[in-house]
Amino acid sequence: MLIGYARVSTVDQNLDMQRDALMAAGCDRIFEEKKSGRAWSKRPALDAALAFLRPEDVLVVWKLDRLGRSLVEMMLTIDGLRRENVKFRSLTEVFDSETSQGRYFLQMQGASAEYFLDLNRERTMEGLKAALARGRKGGRPRKLSDEDIKAGQALLAAGNISVADIAKRLKVSRSVFYEYFPQARAASTKEKA
Questions:
Q1: What is the pTM for the complete model shown?
Q2: pLDDT in tens, 35-78
Q3: 149-169 pLDDT tens trace
Q4: 3-state secondary structure string, 8-67?
Q5: Residue 78: beta bridge partners?
Q6: I need a labelling partner for 69 at 20 to 30 A (CA). Which of 10, 89, 132, 166 fits?
Q7: Inside any domain, residue 141
Q8: Domain CATH number, residue 183
Q9: Catalytically annotated residue among 9, 145, 162, 173
Q10: 9 carries an active-site annotation
């Protein structure tokens, strides 16, 4: 049985291309997720696909880097498949995981993927440093301004307004509120105990 696994890194990305390729390859079932492929990050759909596989099944991905970003992680996953008598196929980088040439090619492709990921990370960090030197700071804009934080502190100090109401007044979710005011979470946990 061919079992497909498709992954994109962000919710803004689309799984259609990978899904179409896996269906065209004849996958009987496809596990999908929108989750970062950072090395060693948790990927529940991949875990489910691995648990679903039986001996003689084939795990199919559109491209090798969908399996993971770390060469070590990819090799451990594929070696685990081999020990369970499960085969692995990448549609983009065509190889057979059962042959020594296929395993060699897999290692070379994995090393290349990791190398280019590291290069991209280095370029990104250099770009952020250059932007910071010019006075620009990267990242998401803050949800609360300094004035909002002062208002939130005053409302918390008053002690007669709930966290939910303060968060609503500041136009943020409760979880965002707790990011800015962790002491409020500690106080609410104490009150519940």
A1: 0.57
A2: 776 666 788 999 999 999 999 999 999 988 888 767 778 878 88
A3: 999 888 888 888 888 898 998
A4: ECCCCCCCHHHHHHHHHCCCCEEEEEECCCCCCCCCHHHHHHHHHCCCCCEEEECCHHHC
A5: none
A6: 132
A7: no
A8: 1.10.10
A9: 9
A10: yes
